[in-house]
From TrEMBL:
This is Probable beta-carotene 15,15'-dioxygenase. Fe cation binds at residues 63, 120, 255, 259. It comes from the Archaea. The chain crosses the membrane at residues 21-43, 49-71, 83-104, 110-133, 145-167, 173-190, 197-215, 235-257, 290-309, 315-339.
Amino acid sequence: MIRTVPGLDLDGSIRDTLTRGVLWPSWVVTAALVVPFLFGVTVPPVVQYVPLVASVLVLGLPHGAIDHLALPRVRGDDPTLRAIAGVFALYGVLGVAYAAVWFFLPAAAFVFFILLTWAHWGQGDLYALLAVADVDYLDTRLRRALAVVVRGGLPMLVPLVFFPGWYRRVADALVSLFALASTAQLEWAFQFETRLVLGAVYGLVVFGYLTMGYLGSTVGRSTWAVDAAETLLLITFFAVVPPVLAVGVYFCVWHAYRHIARLLPLEPNSRAALDDHRLRPALARFAREATPLTLASIVLLAGFSLLVPNPPADLLGWIGLYLVLIAVLTLPHVAVVTLMDREQGVWTTGR
Ligand SMILES: CC1=C(/C=C/C(C)=C/C=C/C(C)=C/C=O)C(C)(C)CCC1
Ligand SMILES: [Fe+2]
């Protein structure tokens, strides 16, 4: 059966529900975390790992666990066995191919993971800007691409500029599961000069992006203010909060939660609940739907630990393994989200 599904044109009541229940919490949590770190608070590594570890069950891993339902739904089709099998096949082919790259070229696979996440977390925020924050100045494809570069760079580049040591430690944790000392090839990326140049270029791009939005906004500047405030908040967040903690929190309350919010209106019962200003039943339904494949991914993680040449020996090693699993699952997940973008008109501007 073919149905029409919401694209970027969410009903006002749904937008309200998502702004209150999804955007606000992401602002409050990130802003609250900035404060102690601005005052120089330090926290032991184990505590910094908590959000990333929690993301295995809460928000993070589950956000991709209904990709097999999301794709048919966004097309207005029923999730038939055939449609679901198609998504599973996509995961199988892309996931296995990328996993093989990790075994043979781990350092290159890591760099690709960072760039893939940059694009993917950027594309997630772009949808939220268009559909929930309802910005009006992203009216050309070039401007939308710029939004992806700016938004994805916040979690992927800002930590490199401000915390190269941690960045390197995490890169090591992933790469050394496959080959010891391979991150030596990435030494250049952590050098002061590289970070200075990348930071300066990125700073200019952010400045250009925000100026473009300010000048291009026609219906008052309130939506631009949301975009600008989020951007500046996240720059500060990733500049002061230690990166494993910052990325873990961002992954859960920002990227994953916004993606889940995007999925909810695609399901008719959840859409009705949101329309009625009720977020909780929609989230409960999502949690039920996401449980089986979240659990299956955890089994995959255990299996993966038996396959890597240098199995994890400590908590950071396990986090590294978890991130490699995420990397492998993210490639097909990005394919699904990119198809969703196409169906929902994220790149349809006429210009
Ligand atoms: C943890 C961590 C890092 C990388 C995290 C990545 C790349 C996560 C990707 C998650 C994805 C793609 C989830 C799915 O949507 C950095 C940046 C090296 C800095 C140090 C901390
Ligand atoms: Fe995602």
